[in-house]
TrEMBL record:
This is Glycosyl transferase family 11-domain-containing protein. It comes from Ostreococcus tauri. GO terms for molecular function: galactoside 2-alpha-L-fucosyltransferase activity. Transmembrane segments: none annotated. Residues 1-53 are annotated as: Disordered.
Amino acid sequence: MEATPLTTASAASAEPVRSSERVGEDARDERRRAPRGSTRRDRRNGDGDRGRVSPLARAGISFVVSRVGILLRRIRSRHHKRYTELAVAILLLYACVVFRREHHSRTTKVFHGPVVTFSRIGQEGRLGNQLFQIAATIGLAEAHGYSWGFYNNLDRCAAGRLFKLHGNLNIHRVIDFKEHHQVFYNVTLPKVRKNNVISLSGYFQDYRYFNASLNTLDTYLRLPHELVSLVQSKVPEVRSKFSVALHVRRGDYTKLNELYNVLDSNYYLRALSLIEGRIDHVIIVSDDVSWCEENLASKIAHRVVFSPFKDDLFDFVLLHLSEILVIANSSFSWWAAFLKHVRSTNKTNDASIRVFAPALWYNASGSLAHMNRDSFLPPTWIRVAI
């Protein structure tokens, strides 16, 4: 089965925090286990001769250098200064050409068999949606025995920036495959020729699309160590084993309440009442801090800390690092919580991961009511009435 890794330029786990630079046998074992794919990780981790100049290129450079050296030794008079400059220019031009060709050979993945991608990544939703699309691409590709990869637009989307992922897929024979249903179904990808690309389109918001590929996700969806450290330094309360984070999403939901449930303070207070044991801090991450201050914070019987960040990527890390998480009906906080299972050895069956989620995501009388389904949440998450 061919897999195309997401390119991670820096990959460090957030829970527990550990460096992405692994050494010794562990590093060699991970390189043997890692699937092949269209990212720079396989170059950095030593995929054959990737990352080294080929013998032919070295021979070419040596030849040009020797020829130019002979020419320079023969040109000694001031009269031939312009020829000296010309010789140096030729040498530099040749070096640039060789570097470009070598760089291309190192950054272009050779695929074996059909490739699955999501060519519109970043155009169909924000961070949470993008992570579903990336994960579904990997999961469906591995389930069908196909390779997977991404184009360089991955670098520019929120998920690519957060996890430092880079695409280097350069095959343009693309067959579009649209999601047929908004709820989970058994996807059968078409059979295509070698080196053809199947580009998914849709949201694929169900972990069952990629539940069998969580080890692959664990390899590539790793939060950068420096980002984790920065968040922990700004909000030291998140280091506590007795910290609880609440994600309060309002924003666009208040204008789309015929589709989405806008969670009120009662939901969050009910979730807090279900938490057994000690609570030291309640960290609130929200796009509407004023509402939280007026309607929620004063009702919480614990010390409340608001996220100081103005960037969603930092807020995502803050939610993920919290020991206990009360999520909103949002793919953003869903993924902040689900990454805990990706890190776990017991995956979605790890009951030690404490996540509280709304029992209903969509307005029961709205046009998206059919998408309310319990299977959307991992079995160990606590469903909280809204």
